[in-house]
C-alpha cells in the first residue's frame, strides 16, 4: 500500500491526474486553476490549445500533478475523464452547492464508479459574516447527504490551495476494478500521419503516461468513443514532465517559478532521443475479427428441390403487388389503395405485435383510406397507370407521421395494461389460434420443465463467440495478470503509441478539446457475444421504456447503442421476458455486444427527440452467456359459461373447434388457483368442456399459458452521438415563472 501511494505522482510513477468538475454554473474553474498554479517553487507546464489543462511540478515535494478541466455540460467528457482520473475535484457554489446539471452529473458518476475525490468551494468572501455562517451550514447539510464524511475545502488563497494539494496527494486512493486490470492512458499529445491510400485514414501517434498495467504492443487498443484498433510500435520519447529535466544548450536555468508552453506535438526538440521500445509481432498480435463469418452450407440441410425453389420465388413476388392508380399518384398514396381481394399481411411474432394497440389503428386507417381511394378510382379509370409498391413502404411512412405525444400516451396505456393483466392477449378472430401461436408451446411447469438451450437458434448466433466456461476463463485470465510479468512498457513510463488505420475524425475530436482516452483490451474482448446486465430503474426517470427500444449503454470503458431484452433476475434456468422496464425490481438486460470481463458498471441512457440523454437505469455486468434462456409468455383467457362440481364449460378462449383440439394437451389454470385440462370441444364456435381440481367461482377466469424463447435484435452500433448539454436550473422558482408565462 505504501509503495503504491508513494509511486503516484512521484518521479517513477505517472503524474497525479486531477480532473476539475464544476458542479454549478457559477463555480469558477479559471480562478481555481490560477490559485493552483501559484505554488512556491513550482514549475507550471501549460498545454497550448487546451483550455484548463496544465501540469504542476514540485521538485521540493517530489510530486507532480496534471490538472484537466471537464467541459461544463459535456457528459461524455466528464464520464470518460472519471474513468482514468486518480482524483476528482468537485467545484461547488458557496450559496447553492450544485445545480440541476451538477446533480445529473453526480448521479452518473456515482453509478459509473467514483475514484478518490475532494470538494472545494470558491468565492463567498464578499458575503456579510453572519450570512456567511448560515450559507456554510446550509451547504454542509447538503453535502452530508450526498458525500458522507467528506471534507469541504475553501479555495480563496494560496495557503488554502496548498492544503488542498497536500490532501489530494495523501488521501487514500479508491480502486476501480475495470481499469486496474487494463493498461490505459490519457493522451498528453497526439499527431496524425495520413496513410498512402487516403487522407481520411492513417496512423495516430498518441503520447501519454502508462497507467494500470504493463502495456503490450501486441494487444488491441480501444479508443473510447471511436472503436478498436491495432498498434504497430511503441516509442519511448523523453519525459516532458520530469522532476529533474535535462538541460539543453540555450536553455536558461531558473530557480523561480516558470511557465512553459507545450505544443500539441510535444517534445519536438527531443525527437533525436526517441527510442523504439517494441514493434508488433504479426504472429503474436491480436486479431481485429469481432464476428464469426458463418458458412451457410455448414448445416445439415440438403439442396432445395424444384418445388422449394418455386415456392421461394413465389414468396418473393408476393412481397410486391401491382395495382391500378390514377396518374400522378405518389408511392405513399398508392400504398393505401386496397384491392378487393386483398387480405391482411401476415404478422411477425418477433415484433411483440400481440401487445401493440397500433395494429388495430393501422388496419382501420388502411381500410378507410382504401375505400375512399376506390371511390375516387372509378370515374377516372381510363387515366390509370400501373405502379409497383413495396409492402414495407406503408408502415415506415405511417410511423413517421405519428406525433410524439400520441406515442407516449400509447406507451403509458400499454404499460398500465401490462401491469393489470400481465402477458394477457386477445385470441385473434381472423387467424386461427393454432396458426397465430404456432411458435409457442405449453409447459407443465415453468420452473422444472426442460428446455434445450441449443434448440432453434437464430442465424445471428452463428456470428458470435461463446466460452465453454466463462467463469473459469475469467479467473485464469485475472490470475495471469496478477502473477505473471508481461513484456512491455511499465506503469509510469511516458510512451508514444503508433495506432494503425485510425480515421482522421479521432484527431479532429482531440483538436476540439475533447479528451482522448485509450484502454488496452484483454484477450477476446473485441469479439461479439451475448451480454447480460443486471440493472435497476433510476428513480429520476418515470417514462415507460419498452423492450427492444434503442438505448445507449455505457459499459465499463465502452459506449454503444443497442436494442435490449428485459427479463426477470432469478436463479432458475429459464427467465420470463418483461415487456417494460419495471421501476420496482431489478431486471436483466440482454444485448449483442463485445465481450467484457466483469466487474464493470453499466449506465443506460435514452435519447430524447432534442438530443439530450436521460439516465434511465444503472447496474453492472452480470455475465457473458448466450445460453441464458429468455422466455416470452402469452396468456389466453376464457370465461366459465356453465359451472358444475368439477366440470365447467368455458367460452371466448377459442373460436373454432380445431383450435380447441390443438391446444387440448396444455394445462389450464385459473386466477383463483385452480388447475385443470380441456376434456372435449362443444359445438363449432370454440366452447369447450374442462375438468378442474375443484369447483370454479363464477367470477374466476380460466387461463392457458404458452411460451416461446426470444432473442435480442442485432442492432449493435459503436457510434454514439454526442449529447446536447444539460439545461441548468439554479432553483425551482425561475423555472416555475417561465412555465406560467
UniProtKB/TrEMBL annotation:
It is found in: Nucleus, Nucleolus. It comes from the Eukaryota. Its main location: nucleus. One of its GO terms (biological process) is maturation of SSU-rRNA from tricistronic rRNA transcript (SSU-rRNA, 5.8S rRNA, LSU-rRNA). GO terms for cellular component: nucleolus; preribosome, small subunit precursor. Pfam families: AARP2CN, RIBIOP_C, Tsr1_G-like. InterPro entries: AARP2CN (IPR012948), Bms1/Tsr1 (IPR039761), BMS1_TSR1_C (IPR007034), G_Bms1/Tsr1_dom (IPR030387). Residues 14-174 form the Bms1-type G domain. Residues 281-314, 335-395 are annotated as: Disordered. GO terms for molecular function: GTP binding; GTPase activity; U3 snoRNA binding. Keywords: Nucleus, Ribosome biogenesis. The keyword Nucleus applies. PROSITE patterns: G_BMS1. Residues 339-363, 371-385 have a biased composition (Acidic residues). Transmembrane segments: none annotated. Belongs to the TRAFAC class translation factor GTPase superfamily. Bms1-like GTPase family. TSR1 subfamily. PANTHER family: PRE-RRNA-PROCESSING PROTEIN TSR1 HOMOLOG, RIBOSOME BIOGENESIS PROTEIN. Required during maturation of the 40S ribosomal subunit in the nucleolus. This is Pre-rRNA-processing protein TSR1 homolog. It comes from Pterocles gutturalis (yellow-throated sandgrouse).
Amino acid at each position: 500500500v505504501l509503495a503504491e501511494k508513494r509511486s503516484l505522482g512521484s518521479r517513477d510513477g505517472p503524474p497525479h491526474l486531477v480532473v476539475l468538475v464544476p458542479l454549478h454554473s457559477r463555480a469558477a474553474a479559471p480562478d481555481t486553476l490560477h490559485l493552483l498554479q501559484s505554488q512556491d517553487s513550482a514549475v507550471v507546464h501549460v498545454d497550448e490549445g487546451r483550455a484548463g489543462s496544465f501540469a504542476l511540478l514540485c521538485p521540493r515535494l517530489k510530486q507532480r500533478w496534471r490538472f484537466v478541466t471537464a467541459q461544463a455540460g459535456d457528459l461524455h467528457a466528464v464520464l470518460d475523464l472519471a474513468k482514468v482520473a486518480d482524483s476528482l475535484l468537485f467545484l461547488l457554489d458557496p450559496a447553492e452547492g450544485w445545480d440541476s446539471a451538477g446533480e445529473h452529473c453526480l448521479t452518473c458518476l456515482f453509478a459509473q464508479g467514483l475514484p478518490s475525490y475532494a470538494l472545494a468551494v470558491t468565492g463567498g468572501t464578499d458575503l456579510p459574516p453572519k450570512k456567511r455562517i448560515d450559507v456554510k451550514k446550509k451547504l454542509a447539510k447538503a453535502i452530508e447527504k450526498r458525500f458522507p464524511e467528506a471534507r469541504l475545502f475553501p479555495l480563496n488563497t494560496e495557503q488554502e490551495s496548498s492544503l488542498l494539494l497536500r490532501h489530494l496527494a495523501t488521501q487514500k486512493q479508491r480502486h476501480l476494478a475495470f481499469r486496474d486490470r487494463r493498461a490505459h492512458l490519457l493522451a498528453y499529445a497526439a499527431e496524425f500521419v495520413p496513410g498512402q491510400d487516403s487522407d481520411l485514414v492513417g496512423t495516430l501517434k498518441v503520447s501519454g503516461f502508462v497507467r494500470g498495467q504493463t502495456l503490450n504492443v501486441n494487444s488491441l487498443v480501444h479508443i473510447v468513443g471511436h472503436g478498436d484498433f491495432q498498434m504497430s510500435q511503441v516509442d519511448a520519447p523523453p519525459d516532458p514532465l520530469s522532476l529533474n529535466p535535462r538541460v539543453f544548450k540555450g536553455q536558461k536555468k531558473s530557480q523561480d517559478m516558470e511557465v512553459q508552453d507545450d505544443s500539441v506535438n510535444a517534445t519536438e526538440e527531443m525527437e533525436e532521443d526517441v527510442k523504439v521500445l517494441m514493434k508488433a509481432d504479426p504472429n503474436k498480435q491480436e486479431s481485429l475479427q469481432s464476428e464469426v463469418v458463418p458458412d451457410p452450407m455448414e448445416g445439415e440441410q440438403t439442396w432445395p428441390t424444384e418445388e422449394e425453389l418455386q415456392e421461394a420465388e413465389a414468396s418473393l413476388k408476393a412481397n410486391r403487388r401491382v395495382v391500378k392508380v390514377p396518374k400522378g399518384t405518389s408511392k405513399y398514396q398508392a400504398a393505401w389503395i386496397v384491392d378487393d381481394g386483398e387480405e391482411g399481411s401476415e404478422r411477425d411474432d418477433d415484433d411483440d405485435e400481440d401487445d401493440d394497440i397500433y395494429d388495430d389503428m393501422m388496419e382501420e386507417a388502411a381500410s378507410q383510406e382504401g375505400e375512399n381511394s376506390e371511390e375516387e378510382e372509378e370515374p377516372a379509370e381510363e387515366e390509370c397507370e400501373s405502379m409497383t409498391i413495396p409492402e414495407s413502404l406503408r408502415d415506415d411512412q405511417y410511423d413517421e407521421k405519428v406525433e410524439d405525444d400520441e406515442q407516449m400516451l400509447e406507451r403509458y396505456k400499454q404499460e398500465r395494461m401490462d401491469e393489470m393483466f400481465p402477458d394477457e392477449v386477445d385470441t385473434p378472430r381472423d387467424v386461427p389460434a393454432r396458426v397465430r401461436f404456432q411458435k409457442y408451446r405449453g409447459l407443465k411447469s415453468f420452473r422444472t420443465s426442460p428446455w434445450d438451450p441449443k434448440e432453434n437458434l437464430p442465424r445471428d448466433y452463428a456470428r458470435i463467440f461463446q466460452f465453454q466456461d466463462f467463469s473459469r476463463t475469467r479467473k485464469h485470465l485475472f490470475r495471469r495478470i496478477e502473477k505473471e510479468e508481461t513484456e512491455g512498457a511499465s506503469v509510469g513510463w511516458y510512451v508514444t503509441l503508433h495506432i494503425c488505420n485510425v480515421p482522421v475524425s479521432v484527431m479532429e475530436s482531440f483538436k476540439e478539446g475533447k479528451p482522448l482516452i485509450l484502454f488496452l483490451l484483454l484477450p477476446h474482448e473485441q469479439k461479439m457475444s451475448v451480454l447480460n446486465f443486471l440493472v435497476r430503474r433510476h428513480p429520476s426517470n418515470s417514462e415507460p421504456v419498452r423492450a427492444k427500444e434503442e438505448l445507449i449503454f455505457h459499459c465499463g470503458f465502452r459506449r454503444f447503442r443497442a436494442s435490449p431484452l428485459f427479463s426477470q433476475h432469478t436463479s432458475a434456468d429459464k427467465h420470463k421476458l418483461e415487456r417494460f422496464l419495471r421501476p420496482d425490481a431489478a431486471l436483466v438486460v440482454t444485448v449483442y455486444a463485445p465481450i467484457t470481463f466483469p466487474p464493470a458498471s453499466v449506465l443506460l441512457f435514452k435519447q430524447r427527440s432534442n438530443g439530450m440523454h436521460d439516465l434511465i437505469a444503472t447496474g453492472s455486468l452480470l455475465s457473458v452467456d448466450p445460453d441464458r434462456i429468455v422466455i416470452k409468455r402469452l396468456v389466453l383467457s376464457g370465461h366459465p359459461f356453465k359451472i358444475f362440481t368439477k366440470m365447467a364449460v368455458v367460452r371466448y378462449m377459442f373460436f373454432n373447434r380445431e383450435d380447441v383440439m390443438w391446444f387440448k394437451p396444455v394445462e389450464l389454470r385459473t386466477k383463483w388457483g385452480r388447475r385443470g385440462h380441456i376434456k372435449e370441444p362443444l359445438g363449432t364456435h370454440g366452447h369447450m368442456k374442462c375438468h378442474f381440481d375443484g369447483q370454479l367461482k363464477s367470477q374466476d377466469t380460466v387461463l392457458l399459458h404458452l411460451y416461446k424463447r426470444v432473442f435480442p435484435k442485432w442492432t449493435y452500433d459503436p457510434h454514439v452521438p454526442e449529447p446536447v448539454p444539460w439545461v441548468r436550473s439554479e432553483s425551482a422558482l425561475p423555472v416555475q415563472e417561465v412555465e406560467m408565462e
